[in-house]
Amino acid sequence: MMNSNVLSAIKENYYLNNNMKEISFKEYLENEAENDPNFFYELFENEDYEQKWDYVLSEEDREEWDDLLNKANDIWHKMLGDEEEEQRARIKFQFEDLFGGKDIEDFRELVQNLYNYDDFSKQKSDVIDMNYIDEEEYKEIVKEAITEYIEKNDIKAEIKGLSADDVVMDGDNSFTYKGEEYQGFDSSDGGDFDCTSCENFDLIYEAVQEANCEDKEELTMYLCGMNFVYKNLVDDVMYKFYFK
Predict the structure, then answer these.
(1) Where do the structural domains in the chain lie, given as residue ranges?
(2) What predicted TM-score, i.e. pTM, was given to this entire model?
(3) 127, exposed or middle or buried, with CB in 10 Å at 0-12, 13-18, 19+?
(4) Pairing assessment for the beta strands 228-234 and 237-243 based on DSSP bridges
């Protein structure tokens, strides 16, 4: 009969010394049984198995071993799922802690300069095992944290409207403000909507879309660092040009 304490130690050793996405628990068990002549001796605490392989197992122990192998994938999926959830929670905590207590100015500076996946993985390798979280999952967690901040703090865009006297036309429906070209733009016919100067525009945009808030377009641009907007109506289409 298997020693439950030894089996627990085997699971712990598997968890601590392996990337569970790269090797399943069943593969690990089979490798250990193949490479360690005392594996079954320790697992069953049976001296007859010392320095022996699985061919010496009694019928009863053989059935128990086969049963463990049959259940190994279920055990693996449970362990892997628990670990992924743990690492997601740790990432979420990092951003909740980062955003917590920040006023809107600090918050929007933070979201404009968030770590990308690779940089975050390097910076937080001591507290988070990013082997279990891919880039898309990371982005989803970050977006969720941004959305929650927006909703909890009921933030609103503070973008000042500019008049025709404030801007200079420097091309075909193109403008500058105080010598700077516009860095965000939109057309109300459902066309372009982008912020060219913010690397995290897509992430911020998607987070704002998920939030229960008003004026999502302007809030997106505001969080991307825009402070001014000039609106120009051309052929019944309202174009908006955003400036820092």
Answers:
(1) 4-84, 100-243
(2) 0.84
(3) exposed
(4) antiparallel
